[in-house]
Fold this sequence. Notes:
The chain is of the alpha+beta class. It contains three helices and four strands. The protein has one domain: Double Stranded RNA Binding Domain (2-Layer Sandwich). It has helices at residues 23-26, 31-42, 76-95, and strands spanning 3-7, 45-53, 56-63, 67-73. Strands 1-4-3-2 form a four-stranded antiparallel β-sheet, with helices on one face. It is globular. Residues 1-22 are annotated as: Disordered.
Amino acid sequence: MKNHAVTxxxxxxxxxxxxxxxxxxxxxxxxxQRQQLQWLTAHQCEVxxxxxxxxxxxxxxxxxxHILLVESAPNVxxxxxxxxxxxxxxxxxxxHLP
Length: 98
């Protein structure tokens, strides 16, 4: 079962994330997802993948200034779909974009 969480970075010690990522998990993304990752970073989001156990990855996205999105899944692509969708919603809502 998936784990969805939306928390404040102050409440979450793992909020320290960086755009300087290991390319290994990025290589697993589809070309469309790589474009979506570029969109997130262009909107000042920080993204990191953390291996929490064998064959299970946790993706963390900070949507500045306050929100940390976390998704855990065995498949990086699946986890990315969730965090991208949530982050994009929050960004477009705050900017009043269509």
